[in-house]
Each structure stands twice: as C-alpha cells, then as structure tokens.
Amino acid sequence: MSDFLDRLDPAFREMIYADGPHISELLRTDVAGARAASAERSARMAAALPEFEGQKDAYHMPGLPGEPEVSVIEYRGRDVLYPDCAIIWLHGGGYLLGSAEDLAAQRYSALAPVVSVDYRMAPEHRSPAAAHDVCAVIERLATNRDPRKIILAGPSAGGGLAASAALLNRDRGGPAIAYQMLIYPMIDDRHDTPSGHMDIPSSGWTREASLHAWSLYAEQDGASPYAAAARASDLTGLPPTYIMCGDLDLFLDEDIIFANRLRSSGVPVELSIYPGAPHGFNGFVPQAAVSKRANASIRMALEHALS
Asked: Which UniProt key words apply to this protein (predicted)?
C-alpha cells in the first residue's frame, strides 16, 4: 500500500484517509447498508452544489419484449447546444449501488438531453438484465431521433455497462449509435492484471469489493460479454470510444487492454490516463487540478462526438 500512497496526488489524501466504515467494506456483508451509505454520500455532495436549474423529468420507457418497463430521469439544461442528440447516462456503483438520480448526469445536460437510466441491479437482478434495459432505451430513443446522435456514457460500472450494452446492441442488430464514453469502466470480472492486484486502501474500490460485486452481478454459469465486456472475443463494429482512467485505479490495466483491442479491431479510440488519481477521482474531488483536466477532456470528447 505504501507505493499507492507515495504515488497518490495530494489532492486526494482526504478522500483516501477518510474514516470508515467504507462503502467497499460494507458492500461485502451488507448491500442494503452500502446502498444507504452511498445515497447519504450523494446527498451530502448534492447539498454542496447549486440547485439544478434545468428541466428534470422522470418517466418510463417500454422494456424489451416480455421484460419490465425501464425507469429513466431526463435532464435538460436551460440552453441545450445539441437538442436533437441524446446522452444515455448509466450511473456507477459496482452494479449494486446508485440510481438515475445522479449528479454526474446533470453535468452534461447543457450539451444534450441526458437520459439517466435506472437499470436493474444485482443482487436482485443478474446480467444481462441491465444491458437489456439499456438496449430498450437505445431502441426507444432511436425511434424519434437519429441514432447516430445517441451516446452511451457512464463511470465505473456505468462505463462497463455502456460497453456491454454496446456489444449487445450490436449483436441484436440495434441502431448504430454514435459514441461510447467509458469513464474508468468496470469491464473485467477477473482483475488478473498488475493493477488488478494493486494494494488499495479500504476507502477506495478494492479488489475484494470488486470481486464480490462481480460474484453477485455476473451470470451464475460464468460472466458473458454482456456482463464483462472484456470477455468479448469480437470488438468489431462498435462505436468510436473514449476511455479514461486514473493510474491508481484497480481497472487501469484492463481498461488499457480493452482500448488497445478496440483500436486493433478498427474502432477509433481516445485513451486518457491521469497520474496519481484513484478510482472515482474526478467526481469525488472535482476541484483537484487533475480532476479539472479530466472533466474538461470528457466534455471536449462529448462535444466533438455530438457535433
């Protein structure tokens, strides 16, 4: 752990040294308690921000045939630059935590309407239920707008879900979407890389917490590419992709490998790695200099894709 702490950007020390119990620890024994702690943390972060001044609408979309409706929240800024486009936003939380009521979803609503999806989570629903929900939203949005103006985006598990839903959408012959924005995506249930064995403090997203989350989320007979996108053997025909990760993130190596495999498969890829940055850095400490660079990069990539 000393290597992790020596390399940590000082801006994240308070985040890493925070007193427990930590969500990654709670998650391994008490999912309901971890969900409550996560919601409380989100509420504290929301209270410190100005109230959202745009339009916010909660509604349902039809699920895939034979499946339940999908709940979404649509955020639309006051003056939207690309109103005929859409960003499908998928929240993080290890496939177990979080909701469509997501502060990060609001961040990009001045660029285009952001449709934040309350996808089905584990342990109540294993994969591929979540990817099915996302494909239902893609198909519904594509009925009244150009699918080449639809972007899939999300952090952590949301980024992993964006990647797996893009694979499922391709394999189902769904609409050809414009772009996938994968922010430190959780895409490989094995974590069998050097970064996957990194000694991370319990205040961060640890190997133990991640493997436990995968054990609840992936299919019981083994993870498919619609759970863990890194398991896909064929990455051709996927939309242009942006991948971002900190270099003190459990997911670093698997994200780099995935980016290289996409590139080798003919998919245009932009890859950004930020030094001294742990998992979730740009959301938890947005005022840090490295977070500002990362968030500016995400915004510029989205603007480029939307335009």
From this structure: Hydrolase
